[in-house]
Amino acid sequence: MEPYESPESTMKFLREHILGRGAFACVFGGTLNGIPVAVKRIQLHDLEAEIQAREENILKSMDHENVLKILHIEENEDFKFLVLELCEATLHDYIRRRYVGDMPPDPNALHQMASGLNYIHSKGFVHRNVKPENVLISAKGVLKIADFGFCKPFRKTSSFSMVIPRGNRIYCAPEFLQLESKTNEEKEKINNDKAIDIFSLGCLFFCYIKMGDHPFAKPGSPVNYTVTSNIVHGKKYLHLAMTRDHYAFEIIDGMTQAVPEDRWKLEMVIELLTPRLVKDKMNA
Ligand SMILES: Nc1ncnc2c1ncn2[C@@H]1O[C@H](COP(=O)(O)OP(=O)(O)OP(=O)(O)O)[C@@H](O)[C@H]1O
């Protein structure tokens, strides 16, 4: 098949070279100025203009090692193309053991994810869809938070959709899962709160260390829809799957507190994941 060649730039990709698919996009391997890149192709009529613009504007404003970079944007009458730095795999692939390339040591991987998310928060955004599929792994084994389709500026009261990301909800905070039953004012507060991302990242940390397990799934039972019910009812099984003296126990427990105000702040998580403090904890 002929490659897609942009009429306005040096972007090229092969339609059969698919790196992944999401609910709204197909991602292809391609090149820009001869350099390998990922091209995220979004069907224009599939998405409201506001959502399309949101992802590209947010990505353009980000510059951090642990946040996926956007290199170029263009569109034709049918599609928008977001040209992104190329990664090798997602954390989902790693957990499923489909990716066996370079990875940082576990505490450093957690540190990288927390640093990327903290940067996103520092720029005034809540990501709202932190899950293994949305953390990418670069060829050098650097972790990058990606997919800003549900990301939202906080503090801004807006007509922003209150919809919970579709698909897998097992990383959603309890207050986020119960959004439908809330008043508009409560919905606004929850959607604006960085604490929903911190809860998701806490679940993701556990899933990463335990290669697919979930802190709200009974050890040995499948990680399925019962997890969301356990999250809502505060049934956490962390202590059955990880010893209390594990360097990450307190951190994950703190990040997955039921009450948003009680959840640990990312600054504290990042500090406790510095190599010196992890070493002290491991030697204690
Ligand atoms: N920069 C990249 N490098 C390599 N693969 C990528 C890259 N970006 C995305 N992918 C692959 O494409 C998949 C879909 O991408 P993405 O999550 O951005 O699409 P989406 O439609 O916004 O997804 P969602 O359904 O989560 O909203 C990812 O899970 C990953 O496998």
Automatic annotation (TrEMBL):
InterPro entries: IRE1/2-like (IPR045133), Kinase-like_dom_sf (IPR011009), Prot_kinase_dom (IPR000719), Protein_kinase_ATP_BS (IPR017441)
One biological process term in Gene Ontology: IRE1-mediated unfolded protein response
Species this protein is from: Daphnia sinensis
PANTHER family: IRE1-RELATED (PTHR13954), NON-SPECIFIC SERINE_THREONINE PROTEIN KINASE (PTHR13954:SF6)
GO molecular function: ATP binding; protein serine/threonine kinase activity; RNA endonuclease activity; unfolded protein binding
Assigned GO CC terms: IRE1-TRAF2-ASK1 complex
Record-annotated Protein kinase domain positions: 13-277
Amino acids binding ATP: K40
UniProt xrefs under Gene3D superfamilies: Phosphorylase Kinase, domain 1 (3.30.200.20), Transferase(Phosphotransferase) domain 1 (1.10.510.10)
Name the record gives this protein: Protein kinase domain-containing protein
Keywords: ATP-binding, Nucleotide-binding
